[in-house]
Specification:
The chain is an alpha/beta fold and 418 residues long. The chain folds into 2 domains: 224 residues, Response regulator (Rossmann fold), CATH 3.40.50.2300; 167 residues, 3-Layer(aba) Sandwich (Rossmann fold), CATH 3.40.50.2300. The protein is built from 13 helices and 15 strands. The chain has a 7-stranded mixed beta sheet, sandwiched between helices. Strand 9, helix 9 and strand 10 form a beta-alpha-beta unit. It is globular and about 60 Å long.
């Protein structure tokens, strides 16, 4: 595996060792050998524990790989904190992390928790100059977090809801079978945003399509989605759009299977840990997702094989493959591990990803990257395709959208430290 240096230092050589030597000659390794702790804040208990546990193992795996060789010469240590998917608990464990001297934190499961962390870090940094903390958002996708609530101390590595919806609806506009859509989402910021941005994009791209129905449900507490599936059936919808994730998506799909609901599901998170198993073998071609990647991207093959061998799980949280490499590249560029210097160095940082060149947009700290649409399909070439969660099925790419297609404008008016 390789971790390319930031573009400002890149050379034609693509081997990580050679890149590290090149950087060393520039004196970049002033922080060589230093241990940098990353406070990981996400659920390890409760209804979304399986997603959190997979995320933690992924971060630990990437840290182990980076510790073999990285442009900054630092050692990454991931320190886990269970926030139980609660914004309130997130603040409690954030304080614990800061009290331990941790200056970099990451979180992703829940935009409510992400918003609370941003607010708390803004206040902490204002009151504690010299002890600043930087937040790496790996999966919380509420667009407000890089618009009205944007912060110098916050960087997002997943595509936000509006970006994903721009790509998803660009694909759906050419799907002539889509005529009536039912929207079902979790009743919190992300779910509201999915519905909002779908309606706006639909009006622009497919005004002939009608909204057959819409529902919001409590997050993480519905155990039987049969009543919701009954509503979808009654509506006559041919397609369902949902931003549900974790058990809320797995149980929704299970209820659809049990009832024999014959619709196409357009999702954000069908590829996340556990959901492919819930989909199983009875919905071939019926489930799609929009995401920053999919398992059958060739450059992911070694990552996936090594992660599977080490954890016995599939590698599904691909945004993690951006967070820590971006951090060490930022440290190499800054020639420091100081959070203020590193955050400034990461603005506009361009580096090579599994999906090509990606850039952290300086205006709002939103990563600009390709997006993909993929469909749940029976394995046709087991030697080349990933057998997702041992189901005998995989995700087959329908469309890749380059960053300029899904990149959405920002209203961010960022206040930067002097």
């Amino acid at each position: 595996m390789k971790f390319d240096p930031p573009r400002q230092f890149t050379t034609p050589c693509k081997l990580a060792a050679a890149a590290a030597l090149s950087l060393l000659s520039l004196g970049v390794h002033a922080q060589k050998g230093e241990t940098v702790k990353i406070g990981w804040i996400d659920p390890l208990s409760g209804p979304f524990a399986n997603i959190g546990q997979n995320s933690l193992r992924t971060f630990q795996f990437v840290a182990d790989e980076l510790n073999k060789s990285n442009p900054a010469g630092v050692k990454i240590e991931v320190v886990a904190f269970d926030n139980k998917a609660s914004p309130q608990e997130s603040l409690t464990v954030l304080k614990a992390a800061i009290d331990q001297g941790i200056r970099y934190v990451t979180q992703g499961n829940g935009s409510g928790a992400a918003g609370a962390i941003i607010d708390a870090i803004n206040k902490h940094n204002e009151r504690n100059p010299g002890s600043e903390v930087v937040f790496f958002n790996n999966a919380a996708v509420d667009p407000d977090l890089t618009n009205t609530k944007c912060s110098f101390w916050h960087f997002r590595f997943d595509a936000d809801t509006s970006m994903k919806m721009e790509a998803l609806t660009s694909y759906m506009k050419d799907e002539k079978a889509v005529k009536k859509v039912f929207l079902i989402n979790q009743n919190y910021a992300h779910g509201h945003q999915v519905a909002k941005y779908f309606k706006e994009a639909l009006a622009r791209k497919r005004p002939d399509v009608t909204i057959a129905g819409e529902d919001l449900h409590p997050i993480g507490s519905v155990r039987d989605f049969a009543p919701y599936i009954a509503k979808i059936k009654q509506s006559g919808a041919d397609s369902v759009v949902t931003g549900n994730w974790g058990t809320d998506l797995s149980l929704l799909v299970k209820a659809a299977k049990d009832s024999g609901l014959d619709v196409n599901f357009y999702t954000y998170y069908a590829g996340a840990n556990g959901t492919p198993t819930a989909i199983g073998n009875s919905m071939e071609g019926k489930v799609k997702f929009v995401y920053i990647g999919h398992p059958n991207i060739p450059s992911l093959a070694k990552w996936e094989a090594d992660f599977k061998a080490k954890t016995k799980e599939d590698l599904s949280l691909l945004s993690t493959l951006h967070v820590l490499p971006a951090l060490v590249n930022g440290m190499a560029k800054a020639k420091s591990t100081d959070p203020v210097k590193v955050a400034k160095a990461m603005e506009g940082l361009e580096f090579k990803s599994f999906s090509g060149d990606v850039t952290i947009r300086a205006t709002d700290h939103q990563l600009q990257q390709p997006l993909y649409i993929a469909t749940w399909t029976k394995l046709s070439d087991p030697k080349k395709q990933i057998n997702v969660e041992g189901t005998g099925f995989t995700w087959v790419e329908n469309k890749k959208f380059e960053p300029y297609v899904s990149s959405t404008p920002t209203s961010c008016q960022m206040k930067r430290p002097s």
